[in-house]
Amino acid sequence: MANNIQVTEINSEMKCAYLDYAMSVIVSRALPDVRDGLKPVHRRILYAMYKLGLTSSARFSKSAKVVGEVLGKYHPHGDSSVYEALARLAQTFSMRYPLIKGQGNFGSIDGDPPAAMRYTEVKMAKISDEMVADIEKETTPFIDNFDGSLKEPVYLPAKLPNLLLMGSEGIAVGMATKIPPHNLTELVDALVFMIDKSTLGDEKKAKKTPMEDIKELMFNTTLEDLLTFVKGPDFPTAGIIYGHADIKEMYATGRKSIMMRARVTDEDMGKGKVAIIVNELPYQVNKSLLVEKIANLVTDKKIVGISDLRDESDRDGIRVVIELKKDASYKKVLNNLFKFTNLRTTFPVNMVALVDGVPQTLSLKTILEIYIRNRVEVIVKRSEYELAEAKARAH
Fold it and tell me: Where does the record place the Topo IIA-type catalytic domain (predicted)?
């Protein structure tokens, strides 16, 4: 026993232990993989649902069953954190295109929590079927799960550019990521343009394998080309984004804060009164806290000219009514609302993702290039698998 004891400086050991922990959090929890845009917990949730047969055409199943499957086979952490991650994938106000279809109460934009997992039911959304398509055809590498009893995918085949499509958010040790969601049509148009403009680096080289061709792919697309298709982030709660220069810098460097504002209209209430109607909120703004904040500002007389405040939101959409006094200045009240409340806020973009296990800050062009290369690789592997299957049947 004594021979196995290693003498080391505590400073050195603490440094190594901290770095090991930091890298574990970065790679195994907090940051998404650029290839499928998923953090490990989200990937394990979708894969577990796929293995349970909970595809979009299946019946709904209890969320508790999915959480138990994920915990027992792939993700040995707290059940509350897994359920929270699962519920978020079903929230229409959190996800531009929800990856999970839910039945029951999955929370609200007012900050209400989801119902307990024993009450809610889930299955994969149709868009998630495309995330796992061809996974059984040896298209992606698999690794051992936490106890070595099963295999799990390193990343999903992901027909969709999921990192940009859904966005991502996570805090690791010493770094963080915050990627906004985008519009599917805009991304597809940009990808088609990139593919049409791509060339092979040296087409004269003989006897290339398909995998070598992937490495030779050259993309002759500029950021300006991409910006003709991708106009900016597309948040599930809509709203308005200001600052074309900021958006361009965000896509060029992978980092920039962008300004978001609520979409408001004016409405004649009769008897000489006008109301400010809020129909769309900036992303991740809690509506009930916003209404409470406005009420407190009126009480404290920091905003004057408001006679009534009502939240008339329903299943058809958001509608917050801010009635003004007859003598109130519409523009002055509106400017004060933007100044003192979250009707105007910023989204600090930091497009960090794992590239071959290493965290990198990525530009729009780089993310799309990596996505295309990965999809070509997946298609090549699928084709090789199907060819081998066909040859085996022929014999």
Answer: 31-395
pLDDT confidence band for 77 (50 / 70 / 90): confident
Query: What type of residue sits at position 268?
Result: D
Q: What is 240-305 written as a DSSP string?
A: EEE-HHHHHHHHHHSEEEEEEE-EEEEEEEETTEEEEEEEE--TT--HHHHHHHHHHHHHTTSS-S
Tokens of 350: 């930091």
Q: CA 175 to CA 26: how far, in whole Å?
A: 8
Look up residue 147 and give its two tokens: 């106890």
Tokens 């577990």 belong to 48
* Rounded Cα gap, residues 207 and 210, in angstroms: 10
> pTM, whole model, 2 decimals?
0.91
Indicate which residues carry an active-site annotation.
119
Residue ranges and CATH numbers for the domains of the chain are: 33-166 (3.90.199.10), 263-342 (3.30.1360.40)
User: In angstroms, what CA-CA distances link 27 with 22, 32, 69, 164, 359?
Assistant: 9, 8, 22, 19, 8
Q: pLDDT tens digits for 229-285?
A: 999 999 999 999 999 999 999 999 999 999 999 999 999 998 889 999 999 999 999
